[in-house]
């Protein structure tokens, strides 16, 4: 239980930190942190359950985009403000690092496996974002009626 | 006729500001076409890439091209421009007001102060160390290295204007700090320290935006953003690798 609280608080802080680096509007910083926390907790839960970083990243990114959309509709701002900071904890920095490290050590085979994993994870993050966006638009259009607004 | 020229300039300015602030390609195209639509310009087309915007305001006007030189991530600017475009389409602003407002946004410096950004980068680095299963004893080193790396990347970028060089030097220093801490006996896991401290430099936004643009059919922007992300990642990796190879 304590682990969950720690993970939640730290991912919240990290996302706010990135909100500041990316210069998100001041009033939105709290929501940036919230979006990042939800995304990371979903990732953490599924990664712990299945051990598959690709699926967990997909679900994490999906959650991030879902909340980002809800906040974007509520505050009438572009959704990118919330999603960018929220996505950062999911980015496969560790895998990319390991890939690079093994290249330096002339261990190309291991590095290829890390690199392809990193590629799959970033693909999964992008898929999660796009899927959530499409689904939200479908629901929104069905609920509010045709507005003919172009998405994606 | 005068009026339409102003409307075209207004669209171009909005597009350039958004692209320079790191908005998604589809949003920039969408905003420009929508703004043009409210100003009675019909059959407009805009073609946005990360390095330039081509905008054709119908058959009776000249097609315009605008160059984008510098790209940063400034989400507040995206929000402000978006707000102007929305108010223009709901007729809350007149065209002149909207143009003046956009000029104001172009001049304004809405970034957070540098010291706050450095602290944010440092804290984020410490948080990532724990999120990536690091040990609590390593947190101070990661905080130090992350903050220091961010200072270096900003200063060298200001000095040389070469982004990849700045990132290379910054990650080199991060790895050196981590390495020195291990040698000095105050750090334990070199890998985790470096990964945590390097996170503020990682091109996460570029990677995801690149794949999203590709999926949305914006192949030119997708590929060029992907190339930028790859070069950035390579610069960071090379800096770290340089230290690790000893």
From TrEMBL, chain B:
GO biological process terms, semicolon-separated: succinate transport
Superkingdom classification of source: Bacteria
GO cellular component terms, A-Z: plasma membrane
Principal cellular location given in the protein's record: membrane
Cellular location(s): Cell membrane
Positions of the Threonine/serine exporter-like N-terminal domain: 10-246
Membrane topology recorded in Swiss-Prot or TrEMBL: Multi-pass membrane protein
Protein family membership: Belongs to the ThrE exporter (TC 2.A.79) family.
Protein name: Uncharacterized membrane protein YjjP (DUF1212 family)
Species of origin: Sporosarcina limicola
Organism taxonomic ancestry: Bacteria, Bacillati, Bacillota, Bacilli, Bacillales
